[in-house]
Design goal:
The protein is α+β, with helices and mostly antiparallel strands. It is built from nine helices and 14 strands. The strands form three sheets. Strands 8, 9, 10, 11, 12, 13 and 14 form a seven-stranded antiparallel β-sheet that branches. It has a five-stranded antiparallel β-sheet with strand order 1-2-3-7-6, covered by helices on one side. It has a two-stranded antiparallel sheet with strand order 4-5. Helix 3 runs parallel beside helix 8. Bound molecules: adenosine-5'-triphosphate and magnesium ion (MG).
Length: about 300
């Protein structure tokens, strides 16, 4: 037999062995005998390296959005930046992004299990989560159980007054205008959402309030009020309304039931101090406080300087 023919046979046999091994491994993985590698937990250095590689879509006051790995996905990065009074007051709360990322993940997963559609896909790292890209409905939905903040100021209702029923308010999402309160008629007149979408926003907002009120009550916290954002998610020809953005102490008022202590962004707004202790207390009571010292996880902005 010529030497070339021997080489061809050996190469063919070798390729067959490799192909067989590959098929066997795939079968074992499919049947669960071989575990896929555990998710890689990124360090803050890895996160910074990832951030510089990614394509930034938008940078807001509290988060940065990057292009996701698949079309229709976004990576939501939680910053330590804090703003209040329409960004008139600015600051940095070391570790806030980490806590908000895990609190929001915890809540969105729980809401998903209750059948409330939302943008959360998975947490990628300490400050990042993978989300479904939506077209944000330019209407913020505020749910109030107890009078506080702008409601008290606008209508002269003493802060802490229990409302006779849950109040759902809409605000037009516009930083330039200071997110003004609007009515359903404004939403319809200016085409920010249609009637069916307004019904869905209200329906989901009330269901979310029921769930969150119970969840926080169980850990000794009163849910005073909170803000939600929704978006349009396109699946083929279908367009569905899903919950987006975040739910964290940045956008909720949370008071300790026993002491009345504020455990939310009002600590920053009103110069009460102890913001991070309060945010961590919420995460601790929810049973999700990360073991690492979150205040030591550097924010990319500090290292960019
Ligand atoms: N799934 C999503 N798809 C697309 N955009 C989203 C999604 N979830 C949230 N967003 C938008 O991403 C931005 C998040 O950034 P951030 O919260 O820092 O914004 P912001 O400066 O607070 O501005 P805004 O007042 O619009 O919330 C918001 O504009 C929010 O509406
Ligand atoms: Mg925001």
């Amino acid at each position: 037999m010529p030497i070339q023919a021997i080489y061809v046979r050996i190469t063919y046999a070798f390729a067959k062995v490799i192909a067989n091994c590959y098929r066997k491994i795939v079968t074992l993985i499919e049947f669960g005998y071989v575990r896929a590698a555990p998710p890689i937990v990124l360090s803050s250095d890895d996160e910074e390296a990832n951030m510089s590689r990614r394509n930034k879509l938008y940078e807001g006051k509290a988060k940065v959005l990057f292009e996701g790995p698949e079309p229709g996905t976004i990576i939501q990065y939680f910053k330590d930046d804090a703003t209040a009074f329409n960004a008139e007051k600015k600051g940095t709360l070391s570790g806030k992004g980490v806590i908000n990322n895990i609190i929001s993940e915890h809540i969105f997963k729980a809401l998903g299990n209750l059948g409330i559609p939302n943008h959360f896909i998975k947490r990628l790292s300490m400050r990042e989560q993978l989300i479904k890209a939506v077209e944000i409905i330019p209407v913020e939905v505020i749910v109030r159980n107890i009078a506080a903040g702008s409601l008290s100021k606008r209508l002269g209702i003493e802060e802490g007054t229990k409302l006779p029923n849950t109040l759902v308010e809409f605000c037009y999402k516009s930083d330039e205008l200071g997110d003004p309160v609007i009515s359903e008629e404004h939403i319809l007149t200016f085409g920010w959402a249609d009637e069916h979408e307004i019904d869905e926003l209200t329906h989901y907002a009330l269901r979310i309030n029921d769930f969150l009120s119970g969840m926080f009550h169980a850990i000794g916290i009163k849910l005073v009020d909170f803000k939600l954002e929704f978006g349009r998610f396109y699946e083929g020809d279908e367009c569905i309304t899903i919950l987006a953005d975040e739910i964290s102490p940045d956008g909720c008022r949370l008071w300790d039931i026993e002491t009345g202590k504020k455990l939310d962004k009002d600590r920053f707004r009103r110069d009460l101090g102890g913001e991070m202790e309060a945010y961590q207390e919420v995460a601790r009571r929810l049973g999700i406080l990360p073991s690492a010292d979150v205040t030591k996880i550097a924010d990319h902005q500090k290292t960019e300087k």
